[in-house]
Design brief:
Order of helices and strands: EEHHEEHEHEEHHEHEEEEEEEEEHEEHEH
Distance between the termini: 60 Å
Radius of gyration: 22 Å
Oligomer: single chain
CATH topology of the largest domain: Rossmann fold
CATH superfamily of the largest domain: ANL, N-terminal domain
Strand content: 25-35%
Shape: globular
Number of domains: 2
Length: 371
């Protein structure tokens, strides 16, 4: 069975994709669709090396070169892990300019799936007919939240899927709680552009839900002296790839992601792990929110301080909280965190700056903060 790619109701076969000519494309073809068609033509051609750009969420955007072998290995391992078979329906709703969207196309071609492409949007089903059904998709947390908040039809579409991947940003405690009512298996991904997306999956819902990530077949794990994860497997072209992700390796070969080594605040000589503080804040906000309501966006950062070097600060998107709410948060955190971990300031920013893939761009957002 040959893979297919449907865009705006038009089905492209592999032969049509190989011969696609941009000059003959419809004038109203979206930029996203053009990227998808250009990459599909390149993939189905003779190219053996592919250049993709990182989104810049953990640093400056950069170009990464991946081999066909790496990308094919990732697709095959994902297919085995999720039980995907030829002829299954796949929804491609992530930006095909970046690795997450491109690897959805690669999975479709390698595993011979019937793919439907839609422009990236918070609501990936909005432009599709009510009868649309899929076996497999990959989304970012915002898209998954939209589907969960949508109509009964959206729940039907979700429940009928064989597998849903969610990644590209942290999965909040609120979202993890909300997916428990979904019948389809939902997996949180761990990976990066350099490994052609994920190298490990964590089941979020159902009886197999877990706090640990399980590596894909053929992936080896290790830790350096800092406790940061190192990865080797076919997705890294057989080379050890050192990350800055602090992890807890378990005896069964799985791991718990603890945070970024380079996301540490040095406050008065005490190292404060940002993710630990953020998790405590998120838990408290979740307790205060109404059922079905997800807390707004925030993050913790270290701002310059003449005495401490850096002071722990909470950056909140949107309108200022009431003073009473700020006091209640500080009181709750004081029971869970050391005093050096407590946010000394709460700063409000009207809108966070985001990367092209929708992640919070912390560095650029902090440029809007008054010292």
């Amino acid at each position: 069975m040959a893979p297919t790619l449907t865009i705006a109701g038009h089905e492209y076969t592999p032969a049509a994709l190989r011969n696609w000519d941009e000059r003959a494309a419809p004038a109203d073809l979206s930029e996203h669709a053009r990227y998808a068609l250009e990459f599909s033509r390149e993939w189905l051609g003779a190219s053996d090396r592919f250049v993709v750009r990182t989104s810049g969420s953990t640093g400056e955007p950069k170009a990464i070169e991946l081999s066909r072998r790496q990308m094919e290995a990732s697709a095959v391992a994902t297919g085995k892990a999720l039980g995907l078979r030829a002829g299954m329906q796949a929804l491609v709703c992530l930006p095909t300019r970046y690795i997450a969207g491109r690897m959805m196309l690669v999975r479709g071609f390698v595993l011979q799936l019937a793919m439907t492409l839609v422009d990236p949007a918070a609501d990936p089903l909005a432009a599709l007919p009510p009868s649309a059904r899929f076996d497999f998709t990959a989304v970012v947390p915002m898209q998954l939240q939209t589907l969960l908040d949508g109509s009964a039809r959206y729940r039907t579409v979700l429940d009928a899927m064989r597998a849903v991947l969610v990644g590209g940003a942290p999965v909040s405690a609120a979202l993890e709680r909300a997916v428990q009512r979904v019948q389809a298996p939902i997996y949180h991904t761990y990976g990066m552009t350099e490994t052609a997306t994920h190298v490990a999956l964590r089941r979020l819902n159902g009886p197999a839900a877990s706090e640990t990530f399980t590596p894909l077949p053929g992936v080896e794990l290790a830790q350096d002296a800092r406790g940061c994860l190192a990865i080797r497997g076919p997705m890294s072209d057989g080379r050890w790839l050192q990350t800055n992700d602090l992890v807890e390796l378990r005896d069964d070969g799985t791991f718990v992601w603890c945070g970024r080594w380079d996301n540490v605040i040095n406050s008065g000589g005490v190292k404060v792990h940002v993710e630990q503080v953020e998790r405590a804040i998120e838990r408290w906000l979740l307790e205060q929110s109404l059922p079905g309501q997800e807390p707004g966006r925030f993050f913790v950062a270290g701002l310059p301080d003449d005495r401490l070097g850096q002071r722990v600060s909470l950056i909140v998107e949107g309108a200022a909280w009431p003073k009473e709410m700020e006091q209640q948060l500080r009181a709750a955190l004081a029971e869970q965190l050391d005093r050096y971990e407590l946010p000394r300031r709460i700063i409000y920013v009207p809108d966070f700056v985001t990367t092209p893939t929708g992640k919070i761009d912390r560095s650029r957002t902090l440029e809007r903060v008054t010292p």
